[in-house]
Design brief:
single chain
């Protein structure tokens, strides 16, 4: 009886640890997406106001935020990974450009935001 109880407790603990690991991965993606959406919102405001210094400050942050969880997205949501990458790199490059192209950068940022929102909805 004591062995059975020990086995049940061990299995329960193992399941708990497994589920906690799954949850932290999902949490990492959710937190990452939320951080990037906050940044794309800040970038959008800076683009609309024509504040090139703020655009240059905020835009490159997207790459660092993406690096934190992109491997999980690539593994679990390949289609959305590619979609985000498609808009992320040009958005960052546009934010670092010497001349601010408000229309082009605004469109790219909006498309990136839409892709991130799509990922957020898929990972709920």
């Amino acid at each position: 009886m004591k062995k059975l109880m020990t086995l049940v407790l061990a299995i329960g603990l193992g399941c708990t640890l497994f589920l906690a690991g799954c949850s932290s991965k999902d949490s990492k993606v959710t937190d990452g997406v939320n951080n990037m959406l906050e940044t794309t919102d800040q970038l959008s405001k800076a683009i609309k106001s024509g504040d090139q210094a703020k655009v240059k400050e905020v835009g490159p942050k997207l790459e660092d935020q993406w690096k934190v969880f992109e491997d999980e997205v690539k593994k679990d949501h390949k289609d959305l990974y590619e979609k985000i990458e498609k808009y992320l790199d040009p958005t960052i490059a546009g934010s670092e450009a010497d001349t601010l192209d408000k229309e082009a950068l605004g469109t790219l940022n909006d498309q990136l935001s839409d892709a991130l929102k799509e990922l957020k909805n898929k990972t709920k």
